[in-house]
Amino acid sequence: MRNETYTLITGASEGFGKALALECARRKMNLILVALPGSGLNHLTCYIERNFDVKVLFFEHDLAKKEECYHLYEEINDRGLAMNVLINNAGMGGSHFFEDRDTGYYHRQIELNVVAPTILTHLFLDTLKKNQPSHILYVGSLAGFFYLPGKQVYGGTKSYLFAFSKSLRKELLSKKVYVSIICPGGMNTNLALTVMNRHQKGFNRWCLMKPEEVAAIAIRKMLQKKEVIIPGKWNRFFMLLDKLIPTRIKELITNLAMKQHSDYKSPVSPIIHPLKKAI
Questions:
Q1: Distant-in-sequence, close-in-space partners of 89: CB < 8 Å, separation ≥ 6
Q2: Model pLDDT, residue 267
Q3: What is the mean pLDDT of each run of 10 residues along the chain (279 residues)?
Q4: Are the C-beta atoms of residues 183 and 162 closer than 8 Å to each other?
Q5: CATH superfamily placement of domain 5-263
Q6: Burial class (CB within 10 angstroms; exposed 0-12, middle 13-18, buried 19+) of 98
């Protein structure tokens, strides 16, 4: 008998969000997919329904506008849909020096990366508690642990998600709502990142992973109630190395990264579509 609870995934039309949707479908999880209008969710929905024995619904909203978060909640609530998994994947990436973007760009990035997942968690928490055991998964980034040139606001938003998820996990454990955060390194989730990542060298190149393999790790570890998920042996090694090397060496590495960032000019616009996940 099919389970009538649903897994909600934001930013589900492409990249890591699409990989998460397909991984959940393979696990026979019914889906509520959310992304921007015109981003192809209808095609993904049809594909999943044809190939997997699950129910799929999709909603088109720009979650960088907080009123759209409330509209999404109202649509789902009005249909009486029961949720037991919330995956906050939608986000806005990019790599550029702080002064190279206007304030509107950063406002949108903060709204989508910070405000939207916070609001959605609050809105859907009641239904998650009613359908426990349930799960909340946040998509962080290794950029949330390191202070990298070109990732100042993006990294700050991921640091927020890390702190928020760890605190929230402690609050909700007794209610059997299990909070996890996955912090991947680089992924080739869209054309701009694929082109940019071709120029990566050394450790940055070694840490690159396919969205599909990261998604499989994310869902498996989430269902195992893992708190912090670092996919890939090189990424885990990098985290360990960061704890061991002296601050002075870290500064030299950061200075080198800054030089590489200023020297490299991407042939593709670095402005990433807000719901195409960029790590």
A1: 9, 10, 11, 12, 16, 17, 20, 137, 139, 277
A2: 37
A3: 81 96 98 97 97 97 98 97 98 87 95 98 98 98 82 93 98 98 81 52 66 97 97 82 76 63 43 36
A4: yes
A5: NAD(P)-binding Rossmann-like Domain (3.40.50.720)
A6: exposed
**Joined tokens for residue 144:** 């949330």
CB 229 within 8 A of CB 183: yes
If DSSP codes are grouped into helix, strand and coil, which group holds residue 4?
coil
Nearest alpha-carbon partner for 139 in 94, 185, 181: 181
Please report which residue ranges of 131-210 form alpha helices under DSSP H. 152-172, 191-197, 202-206
Indicate yes or no: pTM above 0.70.
Answer: yes
Rg (CA), the chain: 18
Residue with tokens 């009486």: 80
Secondary element (H or E) of residue 136: strand 134-139
Contact 12, 22 (CB under 8 A): no
Measured CA angle at 56 (ends 53, 60), to 5 deg: 160
Q: Where do runs of H (alpha helix) occur along the chain?
A: 15-26, 41-51, 66-78, 103-110, 116-130, 152-172, 191-197, 202-206, 211-223, 233-244, 247-263
Nearest to 64 by CA among 157, 143, 141: 157
